[in-house]
From TrEMBL:
PROSITE patterns: RHODANESE_3 (PS50206)
One Pfam family cited in the UniProt record for this chain: Rhodanese
InterPro entries: Rhodanese-like_dom (IPR001763), Rhodanese-like_dom_sf (IPR036873)
SMART domains: RHOD
Name of the protein in question: Rhodanese-like domain-containing protein
Origin species: Demequina capsici
Segments forming domain Rhodanese: 17-125
Length: 139
């Protein structure tokens, strides 16, 4: 059985994507549209977008695992998968679920796409994928 691989930084995730890992963004469709998305096309592989919780409402996505399989993530393949959310919290659950299904090694990206709020209560400027200047685009 595959073991949960743990946490990595956004920079480590980007380097892994450049080396062939798959990035799965588990934020909501609203976040993808309004906040932006990682742009992994320069690394040769577009990200996979699957909500961990649905919007609106925040209910768990009952078809999450099925959608992972439909996106081509194959149990037992041993291809690294890095999971991204807003701040690195939802993606932990997604990475662990993928691990339980034999997908991965599966990693959680610390600080996510936007990181925790800064002293002014804003996200995206102090930590996370965007703040580090990693490739992204408006959804």
């Amino acid at each position: 059985m595959t073991e949960y691989a743990g946490d990595i930084t956004p920079q480590q995730a980007w380097e892994m994507v450049e080396d062939g890992a798959i990035l799965v963004d588990v934020r909501t469709a609203a976040e993808w549209q309004w906040v932006g998305v990682p742009d992994t096309a320069p690394a040769g592989a577009p990200p996979v977008f699957i909500e961990w919780v649905t919007w609106p409402g925040g209910a768990p996505n009952a078809t999450f695992m099925q959608q992972l399989l439909e996106a081509g993530l194959t149990p037992g393949e041993k291809r690294p998968v890095v999971f991204l959310c807003r701040s690195g919290q939802r993606s932990i659950g997604a990475a662990k679920a993928a691990t339980e299904a034999g997908i991965g090694p599966a990693y959680n990206i610390l600080d996510g796409f936007e990181g925790a709020p800064d002293a002014s209560g804003h996200r995206g400027g102090a930590a996370g994928w965007k703040a580090l200047g990693l490739p992204w685009r408006q959804g």
